[in-house]
Structures are given as structure tokens and as C-alpha cells.
Amino acid sequence: MIKVCGLVGSLRAKSYNKGLMRAAVRIALEEGIEITVFDRIGELPLFNQDLEKNLPDTVIALREAVSSAEGLYIVTPEYNYSVPGILKNAIDWASRPPMPTPLAKKPVAIAGASMGMGGSIRAQMHLRQIFVQTECLAMLKPEILIPHAHERFTTESELTDEKTLEIIRKQMINFKSWIHQLKV
Ligand code: FNR
């Protein structure tokens, strides 16, 4: 089993992106990837360099989760055409200390759902831009973009659309080989 750390950029109880992550976790297991979601993302303090002198427990837990994982799986909505603050905050914490950051060379796969027609594409493009600085090795394809999320998930925010589930499976198969390739 390949160990992957999962991060979701929404705190909402019935978040579509949490539902997307639940579906991805199930599919990933069938493909030999164990995604453990870091579910304390909302407890992280806002990034403050002064706190680095005495790191909060949640930050230590995040860093351990990231550093012990062979890859990251990030599922995010789009907020105002970009990455939600909680996700950026987690990345900022995980990226320290810099040069090289603990995120350097970490294989990453991305997915997202939003209510707009772009399916989180702008947030995902901004994530890829952030990864230039953190040197995360983001897999290019397949992209998982779920537009009009309110029409594609059940009222309990479960993802049942067969075509989307199939693309997630393809992504997991590719992610496994992406992680293997980067190990060599
Ligand atoms: C949004 N939403 C949104 N949708 C989108 O497609 N593009 C956008 O730029 C934004 N911007 C945005 C900003 C803020 C502050 C909020 C709260 C929402 C709508 C968003 O897609 C919708 O709320 C999703 O349901 C959020 O994902 P979760 O929480 O369901 O995972």
C-alpha cells in the first residue's frame, strides 16, 4: 500500500469536496493507495512566523502527516476564483522551513468540485502555481473537475456519478505510477 496524506479545502459539514474525498479514498484503496485525510485542517492557527518558535500541536501533526506520506491528495473547492484560505494556510504551514521545504519533491494529485461551471479549475491552476515555489510534483492528468456540484452529488454529498468515479479510478492508477516513477 502506498501511503498518501489527504487534504480537503472545505470545512462545511456537507461539503461536496469532502464527499469527493470519501469517494476517492474508497477507490484509491482498491488501487493500492491508502489515503489518510488530515482532518484537523480547521484547527490550524493562521500562519504566523512568531508561532514557529513554539510550534502548535496541530502544526506538528500536519508536518508529520505530510512528511510520512509518499504523496499528497488535495481536494478543493474554488473560492473567489482561487484556493480557499484554509487550504493555503495549511500549505504555508507545511512548507516551512523553506529551502528546501518539506514539500519539495512530494508527488501530488489534485481534484475539486464547485458549484460554478469551471469545477474548481481556477483554484486548481492557482494550486499548481503555488507548487512552483513549494516544488511539489503535481501530476498533470487526468484533471478531476466537477462543475455544478449541487447537481452531481446526493443530498448527503455522496458522489454517485459513474463516469466521474471512473475518472477518479484512472487518476488513482496514474497517481500510483507517478509516485513510483518519482521514487527512482
Ligand atoms: C464560492 N463558490 C464558488 N464557486 C465557483 O465555482 N467559483 C468561485 O469562485 C466561487 N467562489 C466562492 C467563494 C466563497 C467564499 C464561497 C463560500 C463559495 C461556491 C462554491 O463552489 C460552493 O460553495 C461549494 O459548495 C463549495 O465547496 P464545498 O464546501 O461544498 O466542498
Brief summary:
The chain is α/β, with parallel strands linked by helices and 184 residues long. It has six helices and six strands.
Features:
single chain; binds ligand FNR; alpha/beta; 184 residues; 6 helices; globular; six-stranded parallel β-sheet
Describe this structure as you would to a colleague.
This protein is of the alpha/beta class and 184 residues long. It has helices spanning 16-30, 57-68, 85-94, 121-134, 149-152, 162-183; strands at 2-8, 33-37, 71-75, 107-113, 137-138, 144-146. Strands 1, 2, 3, 4, 5 and 6 form a six-stranded parallel β-sheet that branches. The radius of gyration is 15 Å and the shape is globular. The relative contact order is 0.19.
Structural class: alpha/beta
Number of strands: 6
User: Unreliable stretches, pLDDT < 50, 5 or more residues?
Assistant: none
Work out the radius of gyration. 15 Å
**Biggest β-sheet: count, sense, barrel?**
6 strands, parallel
Ligands bound, unique:
ligand FNR
Helix content: 40-55%
> In DSSP terms, counting alpha (H) and pi (I) runs of 4 or more, how many helices?
6
What is the ordering of alpha helices and beta strands?
EHEHEHEHEEHH
Shape: globular
Give the percentage of residues in beta strands. 15-25%
Distance between the termini: 17 Å
**Mean pLDDT over the full residue set:** 96
List the helices and strands and how they pair.
Elements: E1 2-8, H1 16-30, E2 33-37, H2 57-68, E3 71-75, H3 85-94, E4 107-113, H4 121-134, E5 137-138, E6 144-146, H5 149-152, H6 162-183
Parallel strand pairs: 1-2, 1-3, 3-4, 4-5, 4-6
Helix pairs in contact: 1-6
The structure holds ligand FNR.
Ligand FNR binds at residues 10, 12, 15-17, 77-81, 114-116, 118, 149.
